[in-house]
Each structure stands twice: as C-alpha cells, then as structure tokens.
Amino acid sequence: MSSFSKLLSTISKKVVKPFSPTPPTQRIHKLSLLDQCMGNFYMPLVLFYPKHQLEQGPKQLSKLLENSFSKVLTYHQPWVGSLRDHATIHCDDTGAEFFEVEVNCPMDQVVHRPDLTFPLGLSWKNVPHANDGGRLSVAQLSHFDCGGMAISVCISHKVGDGRSAFSFLKDWATLTREHPNGELSCPSYYVQDSLMPSLPDGPLKFPVMVEPNAQESIEFEKRFFLSESNIRSLKALIVDDSSSIVQNPTTTEVFSAIVYKCAAIAGANISNGNDSSSQMVLVSDLRKKIPPSIKSTSTIGNILITFSTPIYNLEDLRLPKLVADIRKSKHELSTRDNFKENKLVSDMLEYANKINTGTEDDQSYRQKSSCHNVYGFSSVCNIPFQDLDFGWGRPTRASIASTPFSNTIFLMNTQDQNRGIEVFINLNQQQMSIFEQDKEFPQFASPVGDNHVHEDKEK
C-alpha cells in the first residue's frame, strides 16, 4: 500500500443492501464467455469534489449518498450478488461494502498524486471469496480536511468493463441528483450470456490475477499530461512525415504510438542480451457491433476485444508506421464477426486447454507467451467520467487508481479547462528511469504529480 494510506483513518464501515429485493426471476446472472475470461479483480475509480461545490456538510452528504447507493443497487443486482462458480452469479442481495474515511490533509495535496489508492487498500486487488466476506462492489466516501470530498468505487471486472462501471456511476449520480424516490426511467441492461454463451462442457476456469510481491518486483506508475495543442502538433508531425500513409489520425492512435515507442526503447535498453522485440496489445469496445435486438443505451458486461500490432524490432519503431499498424489492426476488426472470432476468448481458451490438459504448466506457458515485451493499452477517453454530477456539479477531477500491472498504459480525458489527455504508465523502476530521460516524449507531455498544475507546452 502506498504512503498515501497513512493519511487515512476509517470513520465507518458497513454493508449496504439493495433498497428493493431482487425478484426471483432475476436471481441467476449467467456470465458470458468474455466475462469468464476476466479475472475477478476490482476496477478502482475516484471522483473529486472541492468544498465550494458542496452545499451540505459531511453527515448530510453521507446519508444522502448511502441512501441513493442502496437504491442504485436495486438496478445492479449482479454487483451485490455472490460469485458461485466461473459462470454464474447468484443475485442474492449479499450487498455492497460502503465505508467512509477521513483524509488528514487538504484535497489539493493528493488529487494529482500518482499513487492514489482509492478505495482504501483495494485498488486493483482480487475480490476476496464470498466465504471470506468478499463483495463484488465497494464504495468509499473520503472527507478531506479542507471540506472537499471524493467518491470512489471498486467493482468487479468479472461483471463488466469500464463502460459498465460508468453506467453504474451514472445511475448512482442520477438517483442522487434527480430521483429521491429511487426510480430510473432507462435502467441499464445486462447482456449476460446473450452475446457469447458459456461452453457446453462447463465454465472457463481462468486463474485469479497474480498480485505483485513488493519485495520481488517494484513497479513505478507515472502520470503525464498531453495538452490539446500538443496533440495537434503530434498529429501534424506524423501526417507530415514523408513515410506516413495515415491521414486524420486519432488522439488515441498518436498518443499510444509515442508512449509505446519510448517505452519499448527503454525496455530494449535493459534487455541484457535477451529478446528486445516488443508488441502493442490494445482494447476495443464492441458495443457498436451489438445486434439491434440486444443493444441498449447502457449495456453492461465485458463487451470488448483485444487486438495487436506486429512484433517490432528497434528499427521498426517509427511513429508513422506505428500509427498505420494500429489503424490497420482496427480496420481488420471491422471485417469479421468479433463475437464469434474474439481474440481475447480464443487466447484464453488456448491457455485454459493447455493448462487443464497438462500439456504445459502455468509457468512454462507464461514464459513462452512472453518471449517479447508486450505493452497493454486501454483507453477510457470516450467515457465521460468527468461529467458525473451527483447534484453539486462535475468533479474537479476523475481518475483511475494506481495499477500493479507491469507494462500497462491507460489513457483518460482531462477536464474541459485542460482539454487534453492524461496517460498512466506503469513500468519497472529501471525502465521508467530511462523512459523519463527520453528526448522525444517530453516535447509533448508534462509529468503530473503532487500539487502539479497542468501546463500547456506550446510548440
């Protein structure tokens, strides 16, 4: 746990049940094959609201939010149920954890810290087994010395993805802001196994996430900001390159390309004679491909696919080529049925088959699968976490908690006044040290840290 946790002290901790019991006809939630591929670990999100936005005191806000939290759980039964096997959640109204903490410092001292751990001690952790008191969802209210407040949630990735987490938070905000009677006109829709049913011979057994041992592997997460003007400059640099074949590159494409290039070069510099080749793996939302008969405004589940670029050597790491390869890989997704030909599922099925049949053990398979450095990219830039309004305006900041996953990069939009992209980069200590000394990346990005104010580096 980070040093930030030393500033926290618990006020209260309780289990909140749904306001209305789950009907008998909705007691069984069947996980899709994609859901089964996901580890049962928490996705941590946090929203910061300064004192000047809050018209009520801490006790009144706590009562209001706990009440609306109970009501929103009525519409999201799977996140308050019990995971009974790898393919089924019993929506038995077990409840969600709800607790409050005091933060013994002003909000502006932690709001931009790279080692955020909201909710307390749960960031990206495996969900404990139900028999051990584990809950599929946790909410935390954090009260700062200055009078500001943070609302954070950890909800199981087994139930849904980042877009699903946003639907949960949006419904909670709507009920807090507009509907004291606890009614939603357009509740979220859980697709369950309607898109990708379970296997006929039983659920896919996927192991839990391996949490890093701090004594064995020290990962460093840094956060950087790329302003709107620097995004334009970076796009122009790529388009104007004589070797470029891509027009109108997206922000995600160009920023993914430059972060990957610099991280891959840093990784090659510490390869110690091992394979210095590398590859990008990216995630794409499939909601636009859902059949009209199933599609809903707020569709919940793990509805995504992974795609990858070629494996690169150092001489291949040129920005126009990287952007072109990302674009090509995305285009290939549009030419096939991604529910029937989902790479994430096929990879997990191959993994499970080799492990379960004993043809390879877990360690040897992982070693073969990691013969080159793989950098995972995930973007929530098109998910408006920054617009979540519980009745006192938009948050001054929306963020993801620190991640333990090595070689992982998250992209997220910043607030309107900054109009840019924030990137969360997790590398080992030696690689991060080299990454930060790169000459190209600092031309476009500024580090984010304690009390840091985003600056627009004009070109």
Biggest β-sheet strands, sense, barrel: 7 strands, mixed
Shape: globular
Q: Compute the average pLDDT.
A: 83
- Helicity level: 10-25%
| Cα radius of gyration in angstroms | 22 Å
Binned strand content = 15-25%
How would you name the CATH homologous superfamily of the largest domain?
Chloramphenicol acetyltransferase-like domain
CATH fold-level topology of the largest domain: Chloramphenicol Acetyltransferase
Low-confidence stretches: 212-218, 362-369, 450-459
Task: Give the neighbour order of strands across the main sheet.
Answer: 13-11-14-16-17-10-18
Provide the CATH architecture of the largest domain. Answer: 2-Layer Sandwich
> Helical stretch count?
9
3D architecture notes:
InterPro entries: CAT-like_dom_sf. This is Acylsugar acyltransferase 3. GO terms for molecular function: acyltransferase activity. Belongs to the plant acyltransferase family. Keywords: Acyltransferase, Transferase. It is a single chain. By secondary structure, the chain is α+β, with helices and mostly antiparallel strands. The protein folds into two domains: 3-190, 2-Layer Sandwich (Chloramphenicol Acetyltransferase), CATH 3.30.559.10; 219-292 and 304-448, Chloramphenicol acetyltransferase-like domain (Chloramphenicol Acetyltransferase, 2-Layer Sandwich). 25% of the residues lie in helices and 23% in strands. It is built from nine helices and 18 strands. It has helices at 33-37, 58-73, 162-177, 228-240, 251-269, 319-333, 343-356, 362-369, 429-436; strands at residues 8-16, 28-30, 42-49, 82-83, 88-90, 96-103, 137-144, 149-156, 189-190, 219-227, 278-285, 299-300, 304-308, 373-379, 397-400, 408-413, 420-428, 446-448. The strands form four sheets. A seven-stranded mixed sheet has the order 13-11-14-16-17-10-18, with helices on both faces. Helix 2 crosses helix 3 (162-177), helix 5 crosses helix 6 and helix 5 (251-269) packs across helix 9 (429-436). The longest helix is centred in the middle third of the chain and has 19 residues, at 251-269. The radius of gyration is 22 Å and the shape is globular. The two termini are 39 Å apart. 42% of the residues are buried. Residues 212-218, 362-369 and 450-459 have low confidence and may be disordered.
